[in-house]
Design goal:
Layout: E1 19-22, E2 35-42, E3 45-50, H1 65-68, E4 71-73, E5 77-86, E6 96-99, E7 102-104, H2 108-117, E8 123-132, H3 136-142, E9 146-149, H4 165-173
Parallel strand pairs: 4-8
Antiparallel strand pairs: 1-2, 1-9, 2-3, 3-8, 5-7, 5-8, 6-7
Length: 190
């Protein structure tokens, strides 16, 4: 049976904690081969962070090295905005729960003290975020711009965001989505 990508519809509904994988032929230059963690999705809109777009640390002078170690461009909105995701469930951080064992934001000064004293804390920090207005993301999913993943291991979120992150994430998820992991960036060059 031949796979018909364009008739594929994700069975998963986007929700807080979903991971969005851009479809293989995404044309938007910012979102080509993107993996985005959705931190909020409600009737007012959606926002999340692009997990696979590391920042050039040389351009970041206002931040300290603890947070720079794992800094990414989270999206094209408010690039002066800094936030982070992490796996530390500690009420003193005052963070927002995304899903079981996954949080965003909080008291960055307290968080920095924790990461300096524990090797078990995983995190990624972000400049900017990705945002959608009411129904915009649902419409993009309906038009097959995104594959919605709701069943994944949180450890993959903290892997280094590099050129292979998109493909590796799809391979790790497995199932029908694994097919997409081998799609060339430009099929005309194949």
């Amino acid at each position: 049976m031949e796979w018909d990508y364009f008739n594929y519809k994700s069975n998963n509904k986007v929700k807080k904690g979903s991971v969005l994988i851009s479809e293989p032929f995404m044309k938007d230059p910012f979102f080509v081969r993107s993996v985005i963690l959705i931190c909020e999705h409600n009737n007012e809109g959606s926002f999340g962070y692009k997990l696979n777009s590391p920042c050039n640390k040389a351009n970041m002078k206002l931040l300290d090295n603890d947070i720079l170690e794992n800094l990414h461009f989270g999206g094209p909105v408010e690039n002066e905005y800094l936030n982070f995701i992490h796996n530390c469930e500690n009420p003193k951080i005052n963070s927002n729960k995304i899903s079981e064992g996954l949080f965003f934001g909080g008291d960055i000064h307290f968080f920095k003290k924790l990461i300096n004293n524990s090797r078990n804390i995983k995190f990624k920090s972000f400049v900017g975020y990705s945002g959608w207005t009411t129904d915009q993301l649902d419409n993009e999913i309906e038009s097959n711009s995104w594959i919605v993943i709701n069943d994944y291991d949180n450890k993959y979120l903290f892997n280094k965001g590099n050129n292979n992150y998109w493909s590796n994430f799809l391979k790790n998820i497995g199932g029908v989505n694994k097919i997409f992991s081998n799609y060339p960036l430009d099929p005309s060059l194949n």
